[in-house]
Amino acid sequence: MPEYRKDIILDEWVIISTERAKRPENFREDKIKIPVTDAGVCPFDKGNESMTPPEILRINKEGIITDKNDANWQMRVVPNKFPALTPAAEPMSKNYGIYTSMDGFGLHEVVIHSPEHITNISRLDIRQIKMLLDVYARRIRDIKTSTKIESVTLMLNQGKDAGASIEHSHSQIFGLPLIPPVLEKEIYGTARYFKRTKKCAMCAIIEFELAEDKRVVYKNDDFIIIQPYASRNPFETWIVPKAHEANFENIEDGRILNFADCLKKVVDFFYFELGGASFNYYIHTGPLHLEEFNLHYHWNFELIPKLSIKAGFEVATGIDICITTPEYTAEFMKSGGRFA
Ligand SMILES: [Zn+2]
Ligand SMILES: [Zn+2]
């Protein structure tokens, strides 16, 4: 029977309805063709560094910051050549009749994951994924020094169906002068939960999920991987730090490795067991200059595979229908032995 479930982080309902579902193992059959090489010239490949705008950061194979002349690089961070927002604007709000506007101020950076032309993040080994998470934390800390930026959104579009326009593996960082609606909803949702229970909603989720052990896919000393109770999408996956903290960017070295351990396992699962399905991932980290949220906000990392299409009902109501149960997908993920 279909069921309404409440997401206690966002404080909103979703519908879990398996009536129209394929069995989870059938997602495997939706093999999405994985391009092996690109015939054209790729601006992110080694040797084509001059095709990107002047770089912000270069990391060598050992994960150490290096200079622009070091040909032995592993990752580069550059401004987006076609930015959605510009640092040249001023984030001042203006009135236009009954409306409000603001010049399109913001930072839009690209993290190039590898000098080789790889098209899936699962091609990175765990050491390189740790390096990538280090780059994320470093860039957020740096962006945070700007008083004009209120929040940082960090995401990956893996595959065409997830919106990737350049197939060379890369992620994007946005520094915004405002708090985007999803983060704002998480903050208000968790604030309401905290007011009612005197507890952080995510800490409560971790405690309950570990005790019940129905939707936990994997855990190490510092992180757990779960299929969320009020899942919006088949195989929606959360990686959550066990320690209560509002901001990802303060994470220390030892815990980054345990985060990388989780992320590597999930991206390998998507690549090898879900036929290289396209997916988005993103970090929700607390707003940059507002310490008042530290009590109830708990940073988190979400991966959303593109396995089902949102239709009119979702668009009309804002209520997502998930065609698999998170209990079933958790079982399925564990059964393959990748999360042992
Ligand atoms: Zn390339
Ligand atoms: Zn917490």
Could you explain the architecture of this structure?
By secondary structure, the chain is α+β, with helices and mostly antiparallel strands. It is 25% helix and 23% strand. The protein has six helices and 15 strands. The protein has a ten-stranded antiparallel β-sheet with strand order 3-4-7-9-8-13-14-12-11-10, with helices on both faces. Strands 1-2-15 form a three-stranded mixed β-sheet, with no helix packed on it. Strand 10 and strand 11 (223-226) form a beta hairpin. The protein starts with a strand and ends in a 5-residue tail after the last helix. It binds zinc ion (ZN) (2 copies). One zinc ion binds next to helix 3.
Report the portion of residues in β strands. 15-25%
Uncertain segments: 29-38
CATH 2nd-level architecture: 2-Layer Sandwich
Within CATH, the superfamily carries the name HIT-like
The strand order across the widest sheet is 3-4-7-9-8-13-14-12-11-10
Biggest beta sheet attributes = 10 strands, antiparallel
Helix % is 10-25%
CATH fold description: HIT family, subunit A
Average pLDDT value?
91
